[in-house]
Amino acid sequence: MDPDFDLDLDAAVDAIADGECVVYPTETVYGLGADARSPDAVGRVFDLKGRSRDKPVSLGVPSVDAAREYTRPTEREVAFMREFLPGPVTVVVERRESVPDVLTAGRDRVGVRVPDHDVALELLERAEVPLTATSANRSGQGSARVVGDVDPAIREACVVLDAGETGGAESTVVDVSSGEIHRSGALAGDVEAWLDVH
Fold first, then answer.
1. What's the DSSP call for residue 149?
2. For the residues 4-10, what does the mean pLDDT come to?
3. 143 secondary structure, DSSP code
4. pTM above 0.70, yes or no
């Protein structure tokens, strides 16, 4: 990784440790990250987005094994996660007590995201905490594929990791236990096919 980018990652990790927010690239769109275990940090994400507190936010982790530290997936859900993650899919599973209510809007399930992007995975590894995995945009506005499209108020409030243009299509959100796709996005057809067979 570029040494200058290494310094940016260090600054991002420091910001997360201080309860601040980071704009980071994924294989889909730019995300808005903060320590997902901290109610205050998660609240800051909601405030920056202007997002209603009754809408849950997903949890970003560097691997399926890391996800299991914060969630209780069934064997079938783990099999699905190992098939599709890292990748542009968000898997809704039962959360553990360490995941705060503010992240899930009080629900007992949380969306899990393992982004298939080197910078995002490096950030998640170095931060050593799960991050919020939500698009870096104001609620109701379009998602950002380049940093220049991120709302200026969000950019100014965050450490920004600019890795150029991202892939575009948002992740598919799926509840494997119910077989329900909450949002069709990248790989939606593959997800449907897996659910039909398994």
1. G
2. 80
3. P
4. yes
